[in-house]
Specification:
The chain has 191 residues and is mostly helical. The protein folds into two domains: 3-143, no CATH class; 152-181. Helix content is 77%, strand content 0%. The chain is built from five helices and no strands. The protein has helices spanning 3-33, 40-72, 90-111, 114-143, 153-184. Helix 1 (3-33) crosses helix 4, helix 2 runs antiparallel to helix 3 and helix 2 crosses helix 4. The longest helix is centred in the first third of the chain and has 33 residues, at 40-72.
Amino acid sequence: MGKTADAIAEGVSIAFAAARLSVRNRILVETIANGELFDAERFGPYARETLLALAAEQEAAADLAKKQRKKAWGKFTDPDGTHDYRDRDTRNLRKRHRQYTGVAKALRARADDPDEIRALVEASRDAAWGDVEANLQRRLTVEGMRPDLDPDYERMRAARMQSLRLVDIPRLAAHRRNAAKASDGPDSRTP
């Protein structure tokens, strides 16, 4: 493998990671926020669309590199900025064009492969579950913390007690008042 092939492989890897993140987020929204059941088949079309969108981005970048190369050809003056290319940059721009085109081609091939789509959805599901598991673990660690295991227990105790007095007790009192009103029945002042 040459340097171009290495760059293409790396680009595909990065794009696949981006696709996995997007599909993972979609899975989290659909299953947790919207209360839907996970169905791998339902997320396949979205995974495919995501890969195709990333391929289109790579194709647009390839077109831009080609235009920049044509514009730079024959210019031998000093550049005015970072993206003001000159003739000496044309080789690098040609190489970028090939790399972007290669990444786009590989992403389109993956988007058309049902096994790749299934693998993407499964990897995304695993990542989503990892997020949920980490979140639960954090909550259980915080809510299940014992004073002897919490190094900040003494320092944070005053704040917790103030929160108890100013927030929790008034909320409990309001809840009890509302419950008492509800159990008394209809208001006796109504005709």
